[in-house]
Amino acid sequence: MTSLEELETEETVTCLHITLYHPRQEEKQIFRNLNFLKREQLRADEVAKFGRDTNICHYNLMDSRVSRVQFALQFFRQLNNSELGFEIKNMSKRSKLIVDNLELDYLNKVDLPHKCLIRFGDYQLLIQRQEGESVDYFETRFELAQDSLLQERHLPLMQPIPESGISPSLNSQGVKPIEIDENDV
Amino acid sequence: MTSLEELETEETVTCLHITLYHPRQEEKQIFRNLNFLKREQLRADEVAKFGRDTNICHYNLMDSRVSRVQFALQFFRQLNNSELGFEIKNMSKRSKLIVDNLELDYLNKVDLPHKCLIRFGDYQLLIQRQEGESVDYFETRFELAQDSLLQERHLPLMQPIPESGISPSLNSQGVKPIEIDENDV
């Protein structure tokens, strides 16, 4: 972990804004080991693992129903345009990982869309990528949602998402998935 | 590392047969930390890193011109057909990683062809995948080549590779890149 001040050149850092929802968070405090509303920096070659095993996972989910390692995120550069992106891989043999409407089985991987909803079990993670220049680091920032995020992505109905009018623009405060007015959707 | 006897069900394990060549191997013994002609088993979720840093890299290259981590191999399952494969990612900011004729810059990744020649600096690695069933483990097996492997892949000339007649079939003895008769190519 390196603070921004230690970077050699001043450059922006790609950030994954991750909004988490679990219906029993209030009761079970599943996300209690995560730092909320705070950017955290990882080296470009680090694999960001999410799961139950605190020895392996950078991001720990305190839930006996979660796999040792549930899924992993990796930073990479696109082959043709050098755009920075992330790959997600399902590391759980027990449960599917759903990226928007795409089901990933164990060891399946896919490049993460710019904005997407990740689901497994009762978990929902809305992930939005904020573009940056650095190839040495990336950042994560977590936010907690009080309500289900499915509405945000229209996922149960598999309706197409309009080009505009639904996604609140990403600002320095991160995503605000629960502030969508019904008139907007 | 787990021996085959400890696997729950009897199943074959995907193996990467890797033939290594470096023009100064005899003099510098760059590959002295690798086990040759012996299958080594890794967990499916392990990232097989090749490079100079013994603390990070499973496969160590004893060469000051090599990056801390030069490249990484990862096991995965294809999304549509569940075939097992490998992804290769260039982890070096200093040198390109060339997969057959495709140049990977830092953090570029590509799915590894069934058989391919990897190059960086003076290094040449011919990698051939032997299919297996296990989704829990994969294996590696190293062999040393005495002569350059470029001839094997026709790479400097970028000639098309015929469907048959050039690739010696993979058997339990692994690849034999230096046994190709000139009449075969």
TrEMBL record, chains A, B:
Residues 161-185 are annotated as: Disordered. This is TRAF-interacting protein with FHA domain-containing protein A. The keyword Cytoplasm applies. The keyword Ligase does not apply. Keywords: Cytoplasm, Immunity, Innate immunity. GO terms for cellular component: cytoplasm. It is found in: Cytoplasm. Pfam families: FHA (PF00498). Belongs to the TIFA family. It comes from Pelodiscus sinensis (Chinese softshell turtle). Residues 49-121 form the FHA domain. Signal peptide: none annotated. It comes from the Eukaryota. GO terms for biological process: cytoplasmic pattern recognition receptor signaling pathway; innate immune response; positive regulation of canonical NF-kappaB signal transduction; protein homooligomerization; tumor necrosis factor-mediated signaling pathway. The lineage of its organism: Eukaryota, Metazoa, Chordata, Craniata, Vertebrata.
